[in-house]
């Protein structure tokens, strides 16, 4: 089985200094029903995998650049051997573009040697999630920016020393010597990789290598965004966006199990959003907070943490229950009405989506309120749901709204899938709500359609050189598009700089966005067939759906340890399963 080099690098990084997974079970705290896992970020230093570009006069101004591809140690020394020498004139200034092989979060380390002037030398450093972004200027044409994180800067490197700069998301780095008539001797140019050092407890492997890569890419996309808090993006949108978190927390549960970054981020949004304000200003995002709390409780069984949410949860559910008009329609007019950006101009579709989300949220809220013995709130939620179900809005052609209508039960999933979701294949998919479109297809029993859509939509990003999934992607961008890991050739469209809309035009577009990780939990839930039935994973249902796959196997983290499954299609077409689960976990097979 062939696996691309950056996946091998990821695996080696994860295993570097980490005992085997079997030796690293989560620490179980029976009073909180959660695996206690506090994981501060660590730093690793990576040499570039290749040099993609050098200035045209490189023969005379750059010598021995290949030394940067060697493993470094980050230490300046007096030996001054095997240096790369950069020389400038008044009119020519050498530059190089490095590829570190995969998307990273962090910065750059520059180690210098001894050169004649003995003085600091100015360099321009440009980080990029694509080759074209690293080669760009801060200008309005293709919207290259320094928003959220400085990715284009001028620095001074010391003589015989070391400088570390940058705190952003990137794969590519360009450096240019700015001073006139100087010589700079460089020993090392290394990426500083900043991430949480976590074992991938959950896993997925099947007979389709593309699906394996997609599962792991989604996991890695979320992993990079697990920084001090759970971010939406590591270059831009280094913020806690609660709605965007739901696919991420679903992936975290499937891959890592309990991690403190989730409750820490949920609590931040709660604490900075006094009622009746909406989280991130968006009416749907406070509803996503409730849905995440429900899912997180299901996975962890952490009643102590749920009790900490009781006061805020009750107040929020009271507020939402009152936002229904006399026509039994959601009346959420006191905040930003938003599902995702591609659907943001379809007002009727937004209304349909919010109507469905109200039902989903109040249903989740009622379930949590039962656990909290809050009978009054349960009754209020159930009464509000009964009213909302009397009004069934039209999806207005929105696949986002259609998915929510199906998941809420307002419209049969089979009808939604047949009449809206399956029309045009992955046309009008979005990286965020694609997860819910896939979930709705699964509810309709169209597992093969879900597999096909994952391959066609998320797989297309991989074919363009992606190593993480993007803030947005549109299949209409594909004709004559460049890959993100090559220089854009004459006549090609720049897949990064030429496309995008709303807040993600051009190079402002994030190519590592956690909300795009939906296929990872979807494949675990529906292909491996693993779903949580009772809080704390005390009861797990396993019902595999292989579609056109010959086998699928993997692992799933629970507070009690790892569940292992393998499903194989026999010669007669029947699925044979081997399941190993911790003794404390009851497994239901259907």
UniProtKB/TrEMBL annotation:
Keyword field contains Nuclease: no
Q: Name one Pfam family in it.
A: Bac_rhamnosid6H
Q: Which residues form the Alpha-L-rhamnosidase six-hairpin glycosidase domain?
A: 201-392
Keywords on record = Signal
> Which parts of the sequence belong to the Alpha-L-rhamnosidase C-terminal domain?
529-586
Keyword presence, Ubl conjugation: no
The residues forming the signal peptide are: 1-22
- Protein name, please? Alpha-L-rhamnosidase
Organism name: Chitinophaga hostae
